[in-house]
Structure formats: C-alpha cells, structure tokens
Amino acid sequence: MSSYVENHCHILPTGMNLHDLFLGETSSREGVLALVAARHAELDPGLWLHAVHYDQNRFADGVHLTRRELDAISSDRPILLRHQSGHASVANSAALRAAGIREDEPNPGGGEFVRDETGWMTGVLLEDAHDRVTQAKPRPTREQMVDMILTACESMAGYGISAACDMMTGFYDLEDELWAYRTASERGCKVSLHLYLQWATVFGPRAMTPEQLEEHVAQMDPARCRVAGIKIFADGAISAATAATYDPYPNGGTGQLIYSRERLHSMVKTAHDAGYQIATHAIGDRAVDEVMDAYEAAGDASRHRIEHATMLSDAQIERLARIGCFVTMQPEFLVAFGPSYRRQLGDERTSKLKRYRSALDGGVKLSLSSDRPIVSGDPLIGVRAAAKRPDGFDPSENLTIVEAVDLYSATAALAFLP
In the CATH hierarchy, which fold is given to the domain comprising 20-134? Predict the structure, then answer.
C-alpha cells in the first residue's frame, strides 16, 4: 500500500497546540473554567493563556462563555479560548486590550465581535474578529517554528503519512513561516511539505513583493518543500454557526460569507491569472455555490480545489463533476463534531453531511483528509468514519475500505502535485 497523504491540515498550528491547554474532553462550562483557572495558577505572570478545542455545543445549554467569566479568573492575563472549529474564540478583557479592541470597536469585514442585547461586547469572536485577537498573541521565534513543524511532522510520519499540505501558511508572518518550513525540510523532516499561502500574504496588504517570494521559493528543494497554491476562506464553520447556508440555523441566521460576491470573484481571478492553484474553504451549501461561480468566472475551474464541501445538494454534486474542480472532505469531522452539528442543524440536515459516496459515484474529483489539529489526524479514524459513518449519519454515503484508503493516499496526491 502507498503511504497516506495529508492534503489538508495545518502543520505549524499542530505543533503549537502541543503547548496549549486542551479543552476537548470537557463537557461543562464549570469544567472548562476550572481547567482555565488551574492553568492560570501555573503560568508565570505576563504570559498569555491560550486554550484549544473549546466548544460551547458540549455544554448542556449550548451557550458560550463570556469575557466576564474569564475576567473572574484573571483581568490582567490575556486569556483566549480557541473554538474547536478554528473559526471562533472567547477572549477576556485583557486579550481584547492586547489586540487593541475598544468597547465600541466596529465589526471587521467578514467577522463579528458578538454583543448581547444591551450592546455589551461578550468576548465571543467570530471569523475575522477571532483572527484579529489571535494574531495579537506573542509569536514563536523562527527556531521555535522549526521545532514545532518538525514535531508535527514526526507525529504525522508515525501515522504513515509521507506528504502534507499546510492550508494557511502566512497566518502570522509569511516570511518567517516560509523560512521555518524550508529549514525544517533541510533538517530531516520526515514529511514533504506543500504550502498553500493565504491570499492576503501574496496579493493583499500584507503581501511580500514578488521578488521576495521568488527568492524564498528558489531556496526550496521542491521534492521536500514547495509552494503549492493559494488559500481563500469563503465562509466559517457549522459548529460556530458561521458556515454560509441557505436554510437557517436555530438562531435564525444563515452564517457568514467572508467576502462579497464581487470581492471573492476578484480574489479568485487575481490568483488564477497569476498561475496558482486555489484552495477555497467552503463548508455551507451557499458558500459552495459562490466558490463554484467564482472558479467558473475565472475561466477554468479544473485546477482548483474546494475544501470541506460539507453540505452538498444533488445539483451541486452534478455541477462539481461538470466543472472538474477537486473536492477534499474530512470524514473524522463526523466523529468529532456530530453533537455540535446536531445542535446547529438538527438530525435530518446533519445526517446528509459529507456526502462522499454520492460525490464519488457522481464523478467528483474527491479526496479525503483530516484538517489536523482540528481533529486527531489519525488516518485510520478517518478511513473508518468514511467506511462506517457514525450513528446519525446516512449510511448510504459509506465508502468501502479500499476506496477510503485510496482517497487518503494515491488519489489524494492528485489534488496538489504538479
């Protein structure tokens, strides 16, 4: 059997998460607060307290924590609880201050500082608001980044993974991250590295010059480390109720498109014309349509990718097959997020998520991945979830074991290899 291929993950964050407080096994707000308080007592003064895999959907009432509850633990130390979806967080007042967020701060485009009915900022951060506070955390040094990348790749190699696509390179600093990935590849990294750069780091206000980027690329051994494409986010996540859907969530909303239709088309066209493969995050059915429209408008959808495609109609599956773009799904999400999905979508809509059998039989260029560190990243868990969907998910969408292994290995490589 060929080795596994991880064609959608976040390599540096996987290594970073090993140093953070893990909340994924805690199902009550009291339990989360107790863990945060205990970590606060252990940390030296002045350090941020960062926790991962927080999810309000595990609580009996499904209601987010607020900054008031975190302020009761510490009003001086920045505290940030990252949602398991990676698309939201909860911050205390110190973290908001550290990020320069005022009480009357307007919502960023493509994000929200959630407020209660009185207008008070709760500390719940969605999408670009979450990114803004996350980027205020102290960054690891270049050498620390290298160590984190090597640690993450050591873990992946232990699962039999030989190649991995990082799907958000440049979140902190593109120059530092490119240096760190290249250096890790030169220091015995056991996994070949394929990097998808955030659109803004190449074409937006944080962009390198073309000459700077070319200099970094020229120093890479493409067999070990290469720039594979550009990453764009079209919407959010179901568990955070920010994936863009046609039918509403229980709160009455339909999620969030990160960009206007015109802006998304412009971004896709710019990267397409520059010769890049584009990988666009689209979870909700409304977002999937927007991305397909943008790809077709750019002139040729067949070299590009849609990441997740969690909610698909029959008509969308037919269109995906016709336009020929790659689609990458994550079966392990069904294991990790089932209760969150049911709370946000109900049983019937949840049962139809991740339609990999229909996509494969319908001629879609499908592959499978994990999106680690959002989930464990063990390919065998993903293969099992693809071949035997957990209870509550339509079993007619099951794949065979052979199909699932292939979509995690040889076929997965087709989505990113030149």
Answer: Diaminopimelate Epimerase; Chain A, domain 1 (3.10.310)
